[in-house]
Amino acid sequence: MATAHYRSVFISDVHLGTRDCRVELLLDFLRETECETLYLVGDILDFWQLKRSWFWPEAHSTVIQKILRKSRHGTKVVYVEGNHDPVRTFLDKILERGAIHFGDLEIAREWIHKGIDGRRFLVVHGDAFDLCLQTLPMLTRFGDWGYSLLLRINLLLCAVNRLLGRTSRWSLSRAVKKRVKKVTRFIGEYEGILAASARARGLDGVVCGHIHYPAILERNGVLYLNTGDWVEHGSALVEHDSGRFEVVFWGDKSDLSDAGSMDSPDVVETAISQREEEDPILQLS
Predict the structure, then answer these.
(1) What would the pLDDT profile of 12-40 be if each residue is shown by its tens digit?
(2) Distance CA 233, CA 173 (A)
(3) How many domains in the chain?
């Protein structure tokens, strides 16, 4: 597969340090793509899980090394910290374990991305706009644990399906959350709050992660762009050299043309509404 080149790439919610991270898929994505700017939009590392139980296989170090290599070879790397990875406080301690030199990375709580057409986008993980996380942090931690449990059960079911020769893409965690009506309401509120914040600051859009729900849509004249995650979707937000934004689902390379694309609001809404019907995901972390 030829290397794909983008002006900017945004990834979030990788959760290195957990067994749920789709690390091999991410490594394939990093090998097969190049960009001028790589944004790490929070929860790349999962300090919550690492504090509970240390899990750090070699492949997780390889991801860090791959990103640092890109930085050394001219890619600008911006690390926007999330709630699972307050890197400005803990990064040095974590990296000492693997004796990894972190390199020349910009580390910030938020960032302003300037598009090729002059539009400006707030880049933020999104946890500060999660009302549940801000008001009920312990409930959020419990939800995080429950989500991980669903992912583990789903892996077991997938293994059984493979043994039986089945190729179903059905997901237990997706099916469970599809039946929780508060999920759709929460996502809508989250999107609205972030879009309103960007608009209040005179910006044209917002790029975020946090809820593990990739999307491209317009809210009251403001673009809302969510990168998705690398524990279920294997998705990234990319900006083409033309300035067009697109969500790519790397776990389904043959179907990238069906991902969200910012060609027009109508196309965006159609693509996202189709994804909502098939795949409503919520991660309260």
Answers:
(1) 999 999 988 999 999 999 999 999 999 99
(2) 12
(3) 1
